[in-house]
Design a protein that fits this description.
The protein has about 80 residues and is of the alpha+beta class. Helix content is about 25%, strand content about 30%. Strands 1, 2, 3, 4 and 5 form a five-stranded antiparallel β-sheet that branches. Strand 4 (about 55-60) and strand 5 (about 65-70) form a beta hairpin.
């Protein structure tokens, strides 16, 4: 099963050194969306939300295969 790494770019850069084994890129996308939502929820608890932050997904060969912005992770409705 392929391993994917999820590097977070928000107020600090947090590089994932362990990664997660997932069956495919679709599962990695879902994992990145969930991670972004978790981080957004923490921001909201502190009274703010920065939608321009992002998570880069790197495959086991070191190639960037996906970028998920925090904006991608939520549907904002008024």
């Amino acid at each position: 099963m392929p391993r994917y790494f999820f590097n977070v770019y928000d107020d600090v850069i947090a590089e994932d050194e362990e990664g997660v084994e997932l069956p495919n890129l679709a599962a990695a996308n879902l994992q990145a969306l969930r991670g972004a939502r978790d981080l957004i929820s923490e921001q909201v608890k502190h009274g703010y939300m920065v939608l321009s932050h992002w998570i880069e997904v790197i495959d086991e060969h070191g190639e960037k295969v996906l970028t998920v912005t925090f904006r991608d992770a939520v549907d904002i409705k008024e």
